[in-house]
What does this fold into?
Amino acid sequence: MAPPQVNRLRDKGLVDRKKVLGFNFDGTRLTGHPGDTLASALLANGVRLVARSFKYHRPRGILTAGSEEPNALVELRTNARREPNTRATTVELYDGLNAASQNRWPSLKYDLLSVNQLASPIFGAGFYYKTFMWPASFWEKVYEPMIRRAAGLGRAASAADPDHCEKSNAFCDVLVIGGGAAGLSAALSAAKAGARVILCDEDFRLGGRLLSERDQIDGRPAHEWVAAAEAELESLPDCRILRRTSVFGVYDGGTYAALERVNDHLPVPPAHEPRQRLWRIVAKRAVLCAGAFERPILFGDNDRPGVMLAGAVRTYVNRFGAAPGRHAVVFGDNDDAFRTAADLADAGIAVNALVDARREPSEAVQAIAEAARAPYFAAASIGSVRGAHGIKSVLVKDAKGATEQFDCDVLAMSGGWNPALNLTTHLNGKPVWDHTLSCLMPGDLPPGMRVAGAASGKGSLAACLASGEAAGADAARDCGFSPSALRRPAPREEAVPATPTWQVEKSRGKVFVDFQNDVAASDVKLATREGFRVPEHVKRYTTLGMATDQGKTSNLNAAALIAAQTGRYVGAVGTTTFRPPYTPVSIAALAGHHRGADFRPTRLPPSHAFAEEQGAVFVEVGAWMRALIFPRPGERPQETVNREVENTRTNVGVCDVSTLGKIDVQGADAGTFLDRVYINGFAKLAVGKARYGLMLREDGFAMDDGTTARLADDHYYMTTTTANALKVSQHLEYCQQVLWPELDVQTVSVTEQWAQYAVAGPKSRKVVEALLDPGQDISNEVFPYMACGEFTFCGGVKGRLFRLSFSGELAFEVAVPARYGDAMIRAIIEAGAPHGIAPYGTEPLGVMRIEKGHAAGPELNGQTTAHDLGLGRMASTKKDFIGRFMGEREALTEAERASLVGLKPLDRAARIPAGAHLVPREADVVAANDQGYVTSMAYSPELGTWIALAMLSNGPARHGEVVKVCDPLRNTEMLAEVCGPCFVDPEGGRLRV
Amino acid sequence: MRIKCPYCGERALEEFSYRGDATVKRPESLEPSAREAWVDYVYFRDNPAGLHKEHWHHSAGCHAWLEVTRDTRTHEIIDVAFAEKGR
It folds into this structure.
């Protein structure tokens, strides 16, 4: 049985009292109502102590009623759904909610690490830099883990997130950020003008501060006006209201990022619904109506539970019907602060004193004090606060310095309001100091943004409504609409000059500036004494403003302290720049569906289903999922590789090579075009022939290689490596559109359009013949090595045949439209069965290419030239091509460069490690003797030994020499003989049968 | 950032790939005397604070290479045209 809600006010608030919601805080069962936040429900239950602070483990309560909350951070939910550092002030209460305080042990009330408070002198500004300096090796192993454990926030869930988030895009004419008085007015005037409007509000209920005050609009309670405005907006066809949605970033081109907490107010999101949704909103215009943040006042022990911002006290009383306490003292330096006293008295809460920091007493406040029958002190301050886990009384110091103690369990404080201008600085806009209002105002705005309401420094409700309406109308007008005349002309009122108190001189106890990061006034003063005079520097030295709240309640107070210390006025000190995100955003929301296997799309080659049926082991190659090997029962991986290689070299194998980039090049100048992108010539290639080509980057280094076949006079078909397919395609488009637009040529990627299989091995011709429709001759005489042509297969399927070989064996590549890919692999296997065909994967493919000494990814590594790859003589001297001029530089062609060689270990059983370096046989293993490196290695079934390809200085001239292969990382060293890179059939006889 | 492709209309940044300075011109000469021009073309780029003509590829769209005039200080896009002259 949960205890009654002792501090729930009768007849107050907008919560639904008919329904009761049960929730747990630190294992205690409590109740609240729909419409509560966790914070308001805790207060309604008389819970004031909710957290321990970051560094000193100070007892903390609830300071604010919004997303700027620095204190009341809790762990929400349990197990895999546990979310640390959620602000109790923004967590919407639901039935079964579980929350726990964090950063305390063994319990919130008896936290052992609160002894840190006793050591607070050593935890001052820059204490990391000063204290944990010696010995240096201790930092990583001892100090940092210790500090992290002691100065922690909540614990992240360790299990995978069972929920998902999603991303969405939206476009509108006018984006209104904030749904308070100004925001609703702006949305109404823009939407009624016909503009497409999106209104985002971070709260679950529209209205902003209208829900917190006892204001009237047009003669009725403000919350009724809110409901009417909401209904009207809902009725307009092009207006969308996004509740529970924080706009957290402003980006170029009118792009805004917003986080919608779609289902955070439910224990578990309904099936198929996301927990959160990340919005990208593109808006022609935006109206920022984010309101304002109230400033705390700096005095001793201003962080004690029960010390709250005055506006927040009004929110809890008026909106939630939750009394933050039963005996209150109000301390402020502006008239607005003392509205709190009136509201408290109205709610039947005793107001024990009104403490006004201003020198001159205020008549308005005097009247409130009289009505509340409470003493009013002008030019007064709070001398000290009693009560650690929750305030019990305060010592009020009057104008003459006399002190009087007042019992209270809540102290409402207000140092004035700061416009919530955070989003105006995301594109580097600098806030400007306003001398009258004594606060920072939005300066240069992001293009297309207007600011209205309290965010633009408006103090009165009338001014907020009017400025919102005007800004919404102007935004709509900018988008080409004609708004009707304004209903609410801006009120004629003088801005009330503010004279902020900032800090109380000579008060007892630690004075907190940044509550979340536990930065005290003494830290800021120390930093300025040590020479840090700019907020940016003080921030980095003291960590002020670096917590997840980005100093929303602390930055300006810190600036005031720096100003006082350095003898300047606050506006001259400057400020730090707010960056996205405005409020914390989980990585899950940013990732959306892109997690786990869905991190990025997976591309499946046409034979994938077949390969799966065969039990293939797959490997990711770029985005492709390729078959690595096709193991048979009982085989070890190396045995599978050897078998697939041997079967291909003695019988016939088939491999899916569809993942290679395929680019169609067509046009009268296609040959000329290819001559300019490849180092070798293609214009004179005969129709029906293919040729190996190498392309360079403009700086002379190799970019990619592949074969290109000429299918007709004006039609070539290029292949690229799998990895570079996109890059090459983009490169060709650049060449064609930018470098040589005068050429009659077009290129298009056809990688997805063709399924292509390499059928390789001495018996491959028999297999391909069985696939071909009758009457097509592919004998060596008619269709020799490097021939290509169009053929029909399997009863009329039009395809292409290429006599290309990567394996070094007699081989054909069969290409059919991709939709026949699955049927074709099965047809090949069937046709090949009498000849012992077996599929082979990329690993055996790699072994065979190493045996043949073909360069691939490890050799085309961006540091090798045509010369290095042994292909220098292929380069034409008769034409310009990409990379020619720079590739001919002396340093790129000199013999001493590391060039492609083969390596055979002297110990035939030894395995050459990939990445090992090469030094002369007798030389020491030091960097100065480094002459090259191993790029690829494999076990060659044909040779019965491990072999490798390597880049070796002056390599081609050193065949037969023995070098030392050393791998200091794996601590191995061996001797190997340098040889030509081609280990199998160097004359190429097998290709031409 | 958003780029208005002359063919596809205004699209989000991640549909495009950046290449760089659009004002560099590939030298035509292969004579040794052209060396400086080549080195300039391949390696040296101005880094102006202000207007910059640059090549972008609409790689997740129509595959057109675009010449975009951008203010490097504000990311404001002043002009977008096909890089292929006369298109």
